[in-house]
Amino acid sequence: MKLNRREFLTLSGKSAAGAVLFAACSIPEKELIVQSPVDMPEDLVRGVDEWYATNWSEGAPGDGILVRVLEGRIKKIKGNPDHPITREGSRTIYDTALQIHYNPDRLNTYKVRRSKKGILSNTSETEANKLILEATNKNKKIVVVTNPTKSTSGWVSKEFAQSRGGRYLTYDPLDQYNLYDALNDLFGSYDLPIIDISNSENVLSFGADWIGGWISPAHYSSSYGKLRSENRGYFAHVEPRHSITSAAADTWLSPFPGTESEIALSIANVIINEKLVSDQQISDFLKIFPDGKIEYGYNPSDVEKRTGVSADKIVEIARKISNGKSVVFAGGSTSAYTNGKYNTFVIYALNFLLGSVGKEGGLILNPKVEVDYIDGSNKSNSIKDWQEELAQWRAGYVDTVIIKGVDLVYSMPNSLDVKGALANVENVISFGTSMNETLEASDIIIPETTFFQDWGAEIPNPLPGFKTISLQQPVVTKNSPGTKSTSSYVDKIIELESSLGSSAKSVVKKIFDNEFNDSDNGGSVKAGDKGSFLNGVQQRGGYWNIKETSDQKTPRLKNPFTHSIENTFSTTNDSNEFHLIPFTNNLNNGKLANIPFAQQIPDPITSAAWQTWVEINSHQAEEMGIKEGDIIYLKSDAGEIKCLAYPHPAVQPSTICVPTGQGTLRGGRYSEERGSNLLKILSDKLDPETGSLAWASTKVSVKRAGGNKKLPKFEGTVEAFPVEPGIPILIVAPGETAHEAEKKNHHKYQEQLNLIDKDKNNNHNGISGEKH
Amino acid sequence: MNAWLGQPLPVLGFEQTFDQPINFPHTKHAGPVTEGGLGMDCTYCHRTVENSSTAHVPAVELCASCHRAIGSESSEELKKLRESAGIYSENNQVIVDPKKASPINWKRVHRLPDHVRFVHSAHINYLTNNPNAIKNIPEHLSIYGKENVLSSEVCSTCHGDVASMEQVHQVEPLKMGQCVNCHRENGGPTDCAACHH
Fold first, then answer.
1. Rounded to the nearest 10 degrees, how much is the dihedral formed by the CA atoms of A57, A59, A65, A69?
2. Does B1 fall in a domain?
3. What is the ipTM of this complex?
4. DSSP 3-state assignment of A206?
């Protein structure tokens, strides 16, 4: 027998120890078992990835996404290029969903509080189910609360509440209630129109940070790319904050907060006086207003005094947008003053003057899509509705409240005292993937599956101009490690009310079976039978039909305003008052605060992250002796918080801008004791027209708290370097124009140019020498 | 030591075999048609072998795709399979109920230690795409000297002629020495991290 060295060593090594080992023990049985799956999932093939088309209703509503799954694990999310909303767009925020699923603080056990004064403790699913059944029986007065949604989740919530004679409400901090209401008056529908930025030549936006994170950012940011490609379109933006949208605009106007409608009317004034559009368009516009005319006092020079915006700029914008395909729209803080609805109404009405309604490059009205088993609304309930509802809770008229997808205790202003109201409800049942302040105040906590594990369907908001239903499908099993005891919201509600169906999957199947019956007139999926049709829908991430567009030809034109309305701010009676402009960032008003990916995405303007900062005018900060990182108190009539200062030259004097989302008390290791909760100090000022919270009408006093902390940010951590060789860096100081800076830095600038030239010459000589 | 060396093959893993939950006859499925087999290609059932690190044991559903209709109703082995696949007859109708289906716990015959990562697809693809490499493999293997080989023929390099085995057993040592020798002879990587990663 010929043995090589390796075989000899193997044999001699094993002969002594191995004989003993093998005689004493055998290979454990479990190591020999290789289980054949009943049905081999494609994504279990090692080293081969699968991409599933689905939808994240809570985090990126309406967007179509693709999820990469490798060996049964979710690895990556990106935009679905096939989906009519997302198109080629994608968002950084998509990947944050991975950390919702894999969060180390993820809830995976049911919890129960046995008496109102008791503590939450873990319990079995069986016991929790028994308690839930008792709390939701037909004799109980039940209220269901979710985030605003038009989906299967909205449908079960509404149907279940009705089956118990109860109510279904939605809540969204920094909501866009006035936007929906104003659009309903103009167009007779609460469904948002799609703004056809891609095909527009001139875009004028007010308040909506549509490149940053306003409604449907994936859609609008890809539209921005199209606007700027080939025949570069013109874009002006009006907003007190220097957002990424303000920074990207050709013309950015920073008005005194609440005066946006005056700028819109002044632009209209210029267009009408200079007859820049047809008489028909002028007549269409003026008939919206009482007596068919705009009030006096909107010539640009008068408006300049009231808004702080240059009259010349107003005239310039008016002339530009009158020429070619234009669109005007508003949202964000513009819709959230005490005159928010008025602002929004007037601004959208400008589209009639420009002849942009229902036209390519303008406002495309969306069809009214009614689908069985999809219900709810993208418009949340107003604060006035909530004040009335919470009064019922406080009085003990409600037995059970079911909450999903919204942290009421964290996100409602102090003035509503929702925690006190919840304390008077006998049973508070909350769903969640990780703890939050509302779950902490609940009596029964149901650990929820993520959207990666559930079935669902949603109508995007806004629609892309035609009927679209987005599909949500499970991409991983419910039995992944750490999530075995979790429950799907829709499945759980169906368990409580069997008349709703048998499961979320069966509900979704019924939706698309119905669509199959109507799919003969064209659509994104064609199939011979229902099963193949659903397969097609699963492959594309939804079903849409470009032929099903709005048939609305004439607007409703209901003007509820008989005269102009001015904004009124809350006051702190302090001499050092600032207008507070809150803004939403990647933390999604706190929903993603416990996600490190979301925390570390830097703000595109300040580059700050992981903290609550205050953008304050640099000159004013200097006068007040405030430096970057100084800890300052912001005090409103509703409360006080601490933040870090970020002096910024582009902030309107007497205005401060602060991001929401931090300061959660029970969010897990990544969010607790981090920053402050701005939502708590918002004043209870309402828009009297709609009863919605005027979240941009709060004034705060600013005071140094003493102390300084390093503000985490990217800016300044890397030295500036020329992007292209040969182009020197021009340093522009705050308040300086590029021309002034060039003059001021002339010698330094010239010096760099000379150095570069010298360098070039040297190189050239060297190469020449080699050649010789 | 005598005991150890006296029966080297089973102890070192050679000829290792087990009674399986279902007595699956490879001879019947993969055996040559001339000998009463169906001549099926290995990759029909082990369908991920060409593009994945593992060959994968086929899903019960794959077996059931044929055996819900084919095969004697009285066969004890097929009864076990149909039970696992959730197939039963009712009123002369064959019903497939996935809720009644359950996995089959096959016993692994070829088993490498946890610290070794053997990637099937890399080996299959190398040998099918490089006929020259085949000249170095042992002469007794069926693919020796061939110009073009199928993936299923490559399997026999390590697994032997499974198509002729009533009960599958291990015929090669599958020890590190065998791997390293073969890698050396065929120009494969011999650094530790090629397999231990």
1. -100
2. no
3. 0.80
4. strand
pLDDT at A771 over 60: no
Q: Please give the tally of structural domains in chain A.
A: 3
pLDDT the model gives residue A704:
93
**Claim to verify: residue B112 and residue B52 sit in the same structural domain:** yes
Which tokens sit at A701? 């006093």
Asked, for residue B6, whether it belongs to a domain, the answer is no
How many CB atoms are closer than 10 A to CB A502?
12
A58 vs A450: CA distance, rounded Å: 10
The per-residue pLDDT for range B157-180, each reduced to its tens digit, is: 899 899 999 899 998 888 899 899
Instruction: Give the closest-approach CA distance of A514 to chain B in angstroms.
Output: 25
CB contact under 8 A, A38 and B53: no
Pair (A704, A724) in one structural domain: no
> HEC string of A508-548?
HHHHHHHHHHCHHHCCCCCCCCHHHHHHHHHHHCEEEEEEE
Coil, helix or strand at residue A408:
helix
Task: Tell me, yes or no, whether B78 and B125 share the same domain.
Answer: no
Residues A644 and A747 in one domain: no
- pLDDT tens digits, one per residue of A455-495: 999 999 999 999 999 999 999 988 776 777 899 999 999 99
In a domain, A536, yes or no: no
Answer whether residue A47 is part of any domain: no
Report yes or no: A39 at the B interface, CB cutoff 8 Å: yes
**pLDDT score recorded for residue A44:** 79
Substitution target from A36, A45, A503 for chain B, most B beta carbons within 10 A: A36
B113 plus B51 within the same structural domain:
yes
CA of B11: how far to CAs of A3, A15, B7, B40, B116, in Å? Answer: 18, 10, 7, 32, 20
Chain B CA closest to residue A31 = B108
B94 and B124 assigned to the same domain: no
Cβ–Cβ of A34/B85 closer than 8 Å? Answer: no
Q: What angle do CA A532, A373, A490 make, to 5 degrees?
A: 95
Q: Dihedral through CA A543, CA A549, CA A552, CA A554, nearest 10?
A: 140
A102-117 pLDDT per residue, tens? 999 999 999 999 998 8
- pTM of the predicted model, to two decimals? 0.83
Task: Write out the H or E segment, with its range, that includes residue A554.
Answer: none
